Batch of 3 targets.
Target 1
Amino acid sequence: MMIRALNTFCAALVLLLVALPAMAQPLSDDRIERFLASLEDLESLGEQVENTDMFGDMGQEIQEQAMRKGEFRPMRMMVEKMRDHEMHDEFAAAVSDHGFQRPEDWADTGDRIMRAMAAMELKKHNRGDMQAEMGAMMEQMENNPNISEQQRKRMRQQMEQAMAGMKAMADAPEEDIEAVRPYRDRIRGAMND
């Protein structure tokens, strides 16, 4: 019985050690370049998707995910929505052609790039100033006798959600930000096409 438990533990440890490098892979120039190249190849697939209602209100869902759950993972959400769609295999093949073993690997790379971009933008606009402005707005609201307690409660909740959303969007390691910085203009161009 003890040997069996030890074997199970060792097998789980090996699986974890194999998975860790994939999860902790740095955002290398090669990885960013492959992601950008994949976007070019996925453009025609994106045009096909636009003619469907596959993603529905995904923009709203992404915003809610960032605000309520503290996560900003738009690419992962897109891949999950596409999982059961007829275009999934074509999508998986396209990202595989760029060295991503699974669509989820591609999505995780894209999400890290997006968070790094958001973090750079927020730093550019001084996130501390934005937080101070929101704090001042909250104080004005709290001191306004014309606002009911119910309205205050709802506004507090909305402000907290907005702050959580900002934090989730800008939650990027400094290494990712520095890796993405030289690609900022190319990424903006690719995302705007």
Target 2
Amino acid sequence: MSEAIIAKKAVLVEEVTEKFKAAASVVIVDYRGLTVDEVTRLRKQLRDAGVEIKVIKNSILSRAAKAAGLEGLDEVFTGPTAVAFSNEDVVAPAKIIDEFAQEAKALEIKGGVIEGKVSSLEEIIALAKLPNREGLLSMLLSVLQAPVRNVAYAVNAVIESKEEEVA
């Protein structure tokens, strides 16, 4: 191999290493058997959610994962591999890919990384079942509003009982 090719690969490994380190979550998939239309739709859904998906050679992925301190991913780096990187929303790539895999049976989740920790297929699927960030914020807001709403109901009940006594 020429020195130029080796240098090019070293730069690629470094770029992927930085992606692994910066990502809130990473989902690794086997995309073999997907049609061009399905791949295009999946890429669009991921891009709209701020998730980057790349097809990267397994040897590059393996070296980058080791350099990022992610041990135990070598067994998922087999066959055609695409990697979805999300820097902000931990749930988004897992949720989108899992939902897409329900209709496109050829898409197979192999594993991933959640907040810097190597995760199994089961953990990625469990993550996919969680509500997205907006859903979680909505649930939190509902919980925070409940005490205020209860106080308002109690005050209203007292006012109504006082009005009944006066009448």
Target 3
Amino acid sequence: MKTYHLTTPISADDIKDIRIGDIVYLTGTMVTCRDDGHRRVVKEGLEMPVDVKDKAILHAGPIIKYLPNNQYKMVAVGPTTSMRMEMFEEEFVHKTGVRLIIGKGSMGPGTARACKNDKALQLVYPAGNAVYAAKHVEKIVDAKWTDLGMPETLWVCKVKDFGPLIVTIDTNGDNFFDAKKAEFNRRKEEQIKKISEQVQFIK
């Protein structure tokens, strides 16, 4: 396991050696984008109102404090379940050129294909750290698609050392969760065999 510090814009070359299980800390531009944002891009064919090419998105519905003069403060930004975006993510990545997909939990084969074909990473932010995560958002520089409401708005954030982010799908399309599941099943079968040998006298 290795630790990497990435700063946007991020190139394919920057992430080619990063593998599942590695740790990433992100500095630069990160945009929150969840269900409705993905739906607008993929199903409705709208252009993202903010350029996320070679940058990062976060599957999250943050809590925002509204300040005077159209200023905002991030109060909490816990990731939401990424699998909800699985039906959109392959096309979303291809259309937008986003390089890092950050969220909670595993994603499926569509995202894995996107990571392999378009050279992106899927990463998981540890759950239960929404307030801590907000401390690494230095500034909210813009808000797009505000008609969607606070959770679904595209909050354009400037972050510093945002992480730790665990790489769960790499540019080979390897999936950390699938690998761990296979390892679990292998160990389970080994234990079942041992137990069966010890209790074979039972009829």
